[in-house]
Structures are given as C-alpha cells and as structure tokens.
Amino acid sequence: MTYAIIALLTVATLIYGLYVVFPAALKPSGKGVKRWAYLFGITLITEILVFALAPLFGWWLPPGRSTYSGDIDLLFYVILAVTGATFIGVSIVYTYVLFKYPSQEGRPSLYSHGNIKLEMVWTAIPGVLLFLLAIGQIPAWLKVKMPTLDEGSAAQALQVEVVGRQWEWRVRYPSSEHLERWRSDPRAALTDLRRKLAPQPDDVRLVNELHAVKGERLFIHLRTMDVIHSLFLPQMRLKQDALPGKTILAWFEPTEANCQRVGDTWHTGVRKDAKGNWVEDPLYKWEIACTEFCGSRHSLMRGKLFVHETREDFEAWLKLAAARQRVTAPPTEAKPGAGAAGQ
Amino acid sequence: MKGSVGFRSDRETPENQPVSRWFQSPSRVLRRVALAWGVLFTIGMVGCDEAYDPELLYPIRRDWIINAESLEGTPGNINPPGLLPLQILDGRKELLGISNDFLKARDDGKIVDPRPIVDSSNLGVELMRALRDLAGRPRFPKIDVDDDSLNERLAKELKLDRKTLERGSVVYRRNCLHCHGLNGDGKGPTGLWVNPHPRDFRSGIFKYVSSSQDEGKRKPLREDLRRTLTNGIEGTSMPSFALLPPEDMDAVISYVIHLSIRGEAEMETLKELILERGQSAGAAEEVEQTPIVERVRSKARTAAERWLEALTSQLMPASQPDYENDEAKMLEAAARGYKFFTRSDQCVQCHTNFGRDADLRYDMWGTMVRPRNLTANIYGGGRRPIDFYWRIHLGIRGSGMPSFAPVNEKDPAVKDAEAREKTMWDVVAFIRLLPYPEWRAKLSKAHGIFLD
To answer: Which of B240, B212, B207 is CA-nearest to residue B226?
Structure first.
C-alpha cells in the first residue's frame, strides 16, 4: 500500500514534470506559466513527505553494530541536517519566486548582474560550514582510518586478508595454530600486522564470507587483484576502497553477534534476546558489498558477514574450516551445497 | 527580429520544405518523442523476463573442431584479447606467427571444419532437428536419448529432469551466459576477452575432475562441478557462486551437463560425417546411410552413460599420507617429492623451474595454456591435499598434463602400486610447501634443497 502511494506520487510528479518540460507535447496552448512553480512545490513536498515517512517503513540506514558506527552516524546526521536545511530553504525561495514572478505578457525582462554583498554571504556561510565539518570529522577519521598499532592492540585483535577480484571477495585467515603463536608471543601478531599477514600453508581460505568476533578488533588487509573495488560492511559502517598494488589496513570491532552454531555449520540472521536465547531476525543478516563499480557483475559481488558471540565459537569454526581444507580423502557422503570452504 | 525572420524565410524554399516544417511545429516533434519513449519503455518492461524466448533454438556448431588427442607445436605468445587462436583458420592474419601450427594441423586433418556439412541443406536441417529432439530449446531444455530406462536414470541420478533443467536455464542465462555462451561454447560476448577463455562444454572435457574413468571417457561428478562453482577457479575469470541458493546451484549443474551432452553429441556426429564424407568423396548418397537422428542419439547415449558412470567412480586414495600435523615428516615427504618432481622424465619437463619458466602449449580447445607456476600459490582446481592428489594422479585432461607415472618395476619410486601411491603423496607435500618462502627455507635447512 505504502509502496503504491509513493509510486503514485512519483509517477504524478514525473508526469507533471513532463507536462512542464514538454508543454507543447501535452498541451499545445501557451498558458499556465506558473507550472514551474507548481512542479518545484510538489517535488519539495513529495520529498519531505518521503523523507519523513521513510524511517517508518525501515527505509533508513541499518542500525550500526560496531564501536565506531556512532561517530560515523553522528557525522552523517550533522551533514544531513546542514544540507537538508539548505535544500529546503533554497527550494522554498525558488518556488516562491517562480510563483510570484511568472512571465507576463508585455512586462520586460529584468537583468541583474549580481550583488557583491549577497555573494559574499553565500560564499562565506558554506565556507565556514565546510571548515567546521572538516575540523569536526578529524576525531572520527583518526579513530577509523588511523588505528594505533602496538603490541597490545595487535595481540588482542584478529587479522584477515581480503582480496577483491572480479567478482568475488577472497578471504584468508591465519589458522588456529597461528593464533596460538600470537597468544604466546605478542610481538608475532604485530610482526604479522606489519608484514601484511604473509601467507602460510595452513591458512584458512574462504570465498565471500567474513568472520569476526563480538568485542574484538578485526584488522583487514585489503587488496585487489584487478580493478578498484570497495569493501563495504553497512552494519559496521566500514567502507574502504581497495587499490591495485596496495595493501590497505582497515578495521572494525562489532558490538553484536549474528550467528549461531547449528551442528557443523553456522547459521546467520539470529540475535540474542534479553534472556540470552537466539531468535531469528532478518535484520541480523549482514552483508559484504562492493561499492565501487567494478564491472558487469558488480552487483553480484557480495558476501556474508558472520560475527561470532565468543572467541571460542570463532576458533571452533576456524578449526572446522581448516579441517575441511586439509582433507586427504573426499567426504564419503557429499552434502549438497557444502563446498570445500563450507557455507 | 529581422535576423530571425530572414533565417526562417531562407529555409522556406521548396526543397527545404520538410525541414522547415519540423522547426515550425515543435509540438509534433515532441509528441513523437513522447510516443517513441512510451513505446520503448513498454518494450523494455516486456523484455524484463528471466527466461529465454520460447522460440529460440540452440545454434548449430559452426566453428572448427579439433579432431586429435593433442596439438603439436609451441606457441610463442599468448593469444591476443578478443581473438581465439583457431580464428587464424578463418583468415585472421593478425594471429600468424602465434598459431600457424594450426594451419599445419588443418592440413593434417587434425582440425576439421563442420561448415560444409552444416551448410549443405538437408544434412544441416536434419542435424538441427535431431539435436532439437535430443536437447530441446534453451527455454525448454531436456535430454531425450530415446531409451526409456536410460532417460529415467538420467532424470533420477543425474537430475536431468525437465523441471530442473528449466530452472537451470534461467540461472544459466542470468549468471553464466555472458561468458559461456548460449550453447556452452565459451564464446559469449565477454568470453573472448578473458584469458584463459571460458570452458567450451561442447567437447565434453572438464579439467578438475575426480572420477577414475579412462582418460578418454572421463567425466566430472556433479560434486566436481559443484566444487568449481562454489570456489570459483583461482587465476581465471571464473568467480565463486557460493551464494547461489543450493537448488539453483543444482539446477545450473544439471543444465551444464545438458549442454555438454548436447554439444558432445553434435561434435561427435559432425566428426563422423566429416570423416565419411572425406572417405567417399563425391558419393553423397552413401553418407546418409544411417539417419542423422540415430547417430546423434547414439552419441548422446554414449556420453550420457559416461556421465552416469562417473557418479559412482570417484577416485579414492588407496592410502593416506602420514605427514599431516607432523612437520619433520612433512619435510621428509616434501624432500622425496622434490627428488621425484625434478627427475628429468617427470614433472619438471613441463613445469620448468617449478613452473616459473614454463613454456606455452596448446590445449584441447585450441587455446594456449602455460603449465602452472607452482611457486605462485594460485591453483585452479583447489588447494586441498585431495585436490592436488586427484590432479597428480589423474592428470588434467585437455591441458596436456598427463596422469601420474605408471607402475614400473625398474623404477624404485613407482615399483608397485603402494610405492606409487606414496610417491604421489610426497609430490603433494612438496607442492603444498613450494609457494611459501619460510617453508622453502626450512626445506633447504633440513634437506639441503635450494629452491630460490
């Protein structure tokens, strides 16, 4: 129903827009010079309406689930408020002027050549706003893009290499034996962080799935094999371009888990309710997306994000995935849908 | 004012009449634009159908057929983007110097042209009909080999029933068509532009296979195709389709098998017809002694039986390696594997300098391949030990990689089946460690093998 109303509104605006842009096509006579004013007025009202109603239907940002999602969202809302207010103000003035002063038979056009005072004002205000935004975003940028790398933070974090490729994400985790080494020697983790997680024979390799642990940092060594891709984890508010020839370090720390062990597979799209039971919730199916147009199958370059409740749960999964990769005989009964990397 | 009037009156000469009329009544133009836009929009929306056009037929094979087990020659360069090396036979002179080996192969009858057969009116039409009866149309695919029991087995064991295939054709159209082509020839619009080229299913040959059938008859299991689809093929443009719903994955596997059986029946029939025509030059009537329908069906039956046989003939390793979770043993095995690998009559023949300096060669599809650089840590057929074992044991059909050295009493490494099995696992160990600098260092420290 709501979709129908909004679709109807959009179509109506579109038709009216056509009527304005191609008046002769629809109405040959030259009357109705206030059409432009109506068009902009209707557009403005529709947009405000859609904007106001959208959150009610869930057409809004997915809730942030990482430690820095609050900082990112705050910046987003500040910028939205500034640009939104500007947009509404400009549209109202625009509509009013078009309504008040339509072209009239016999009235000569008036040409003006600027107003220095006015121009200085409307250059200075955005300038100051942009400057304030530039200053205001520094803490968030520092937090998200420039993590401090020391032995303490490296030893407590996980690391993974994510390689973008047309059109898939190839993911490589160090094995649990490797994680054991980090635990016993905190410097090893930092060395691996600096060496961009050099490949090992016992690495666990996956395609299109990323695993993290609730409350633990995950460092991502992001690379690409061909063109520019961009790793986007909407719920984590992480978006980072992958550039050919570079290994870029990104990180996030989830604050909620979204997967549960069912036998030997992990089921995503669940959350813990207040009593500590897992309940199904489609909002907890989290996606990895590519947000840099990278070719014809760009829209299919997606993956799943699993956030494990505990480190033990994660390591149990890691061990199983490693075992699946170390098989020296084919499984006697192949399960449909279970690939070498597991689902 | 005057200028614009002058402009208008200039145009109103009799020969310019139509042009000026367009300028004078913009409403008509705009109305036409609006109408055209509406019509195009409607057509566009109607075209938003996931499945193929019901009238569409599979095109018949019109490209060169390689009628030999292998192609000789050493290409000097990889083929340029947008071209297939075999196109030199269609007069693509820019390929000269890269693949003039093909000109020789054609003269030797190793590469044959199906076009004279396909273009001769009755044979072409009959073949088209026979293949349509066998495999249906892209929208309504089927495999009907005119043998009820075999048909039933195909539907039950190989999941080639019509419902699955119909779903498969939709999934294939959405995900595979643009590289692998309408009839699975690997010549979709993007197919020519990626290297290695997408697989041509019509030859019925697949590379990453685990069935123990004879090399000429070897077909993949459904599981092998599923593995390729799930993990993609590293080092090529084939991505992972792990996120397809399992039933769609099943359907598209069925559809690929369908395309392969259809293509193989077509190719084998054409080969036979070309051979017969060559033998009885001029006597065209004799060629048609066996009806085309029968030929196509019998070829399809042979292929289908091989596919069915593959399902139950997965190669199981007779023994298990003893080096998993034991570094010293792993290094020992790798050292033995190294010794075997570098024997002048073994792997190193093609994988020169562990594949770093390997020469190009031709594969069974008439494209260039390079034996894998085993230090690069990129493996098309998977990186589990069992994947390596299968490839080493069975070889990689079509690429020129042979199966493992046969049992030979004079050769201690393969003196009996047991020793052969052990040597294979040793080579697996060696290959698994080869890409990692730390492990190469360990290998040289423990066994004095220098690989860098």
So the answer is: B240
Task: Indicate whether B211 and B336 sit together in one domain.
Answer: no
Looking at the structure, do residues B303 and B383 belong to the same domain, yes or no? Answer: no
pLDDT score for A334: 47
- Tell me how far apart the alpha carbons of residues B37 and B29 are, in angstroms, rounded to a whole number: 12
The H-or-E segment that residue A306 falls in is strand A302-308
Instruction: Calculate the alpha carbon distances from B413 to B324, B338, B343, B348, B421 in Å.
Output: 21, 12, 11, 16, 9
Q: Within this chain, do residues A135 and A167 fall inside the same structural domain, yes or no?
A: no
Residues 6+ apart with CB under 8 A from A260: A266, A267, A270, A278, A309
Q: Is the previous residue joined to B196 through a cis bond, with omega within 30 degrees of 0?
A: yes
Does a structural domain hold residue A24? yes
In a domain, B244, yes or no: yes
Residues of A in Cβ contact (< 8 Å) with B383? 205, 325
Structural contact between residues A250 and A159, judged by C-beta atoms closer than 8 angstroms? no
A195 interface with B at CB cutoff 8 Å: no
In a domain, A343, yes or no: no
**Residue-range definition of the domain harbouring residue B333:** 327-447
Q: Mutate which of B224, B240, B326 to disrupt the A interface (most A C-beta within 10 Å)?
A: B240
Which residues on B lie below 8 Å from A22 (Cβ)? 30, 33-34
Instruction: Tell me if B27 and A166 make a contact (CB, 8 A cut-off).
Output: no
Q: Name the nearest CA neighbour of B312 among B440, B223, B199.
A: B223
Query: Would the CA dihedral through A73, A74, A79, A81 be positive or negative?
Result: positive
Measure the CA angle with vertex B360, ends B359 and B366; round to 5°.
Answer: 160
Give the pair of three-digit tokens for residue B209: 């296979």
Q: Which residues pair with A169 in a beta bridge?
A: A164
- DSSP helix, strand, coil percent of chain A (3-state; round to 5): 45, 20, 35
Number of domains in chain B: 2
CA A202 to chain centre: 32
Q: Share the mean pLDDT of chain B.
A: 85
Closest to B316 (Cα-Cα) out of A325, A338, A327: A327
- B121 vs A171, B85, B124, B128, B278, CA distance in Å? 54, 29, 6, 11, 18
Q: Which of A304, A308, A340 lies closest to A324, judged by CA?
A: A340
Whole-model pTM?
A: 0.82
Are B221 and B272 in the same domain? yes
The answer to whether residues A185 and A314 belong to one domain is yes
How high is the pLDDT of residue A20? 67
Phi and psi torsions of A260, nearest 5° = -140, 145
A289 bridge partner residues: A232, A302
Q: Summarize the confidence of residues A239-262 as an average pLDDT.
A: 92
pLDDT tens-digit series, residues B194-251: 888 899 999 999 999 999 888 888 999 999 999 999 999 988 889 999 889 999 999 9
Q: Looking at the DSSP assignment, which residues form a beta bridge with residue A239?
A: A232
Rounded Cα–Cα distance for residues A199 and B101 (Å): 40
Q: Find tokens 């399960």 and name the residue.
A: A335
Residues A341, B231: C-beta atoms closer than 8 Å = yes
| Cis, peptide link before residue A122, omega less than 30° from 0 | no
Assigned domain for A7 exists: yes
Chain B residues with CB under 8 Å of A340 CB are: 227, 230-231, 382, 384, 387
Same domain, A205 and A245: yes
- Shared domain for A96 and A164, answered yes or no, is no
Structure tokens at A236: 């984590």
Contact B239 A166 (CB under 8 A): yes
What domain range includes position A195? Answer: 148-325
How many domains is chain A built from? 2
Task: Tell me whether residue A221 is in a domain.
Answer: yes
C-alpha angle B369-B406-A332 in degrees, rounded to nearest 5: 80
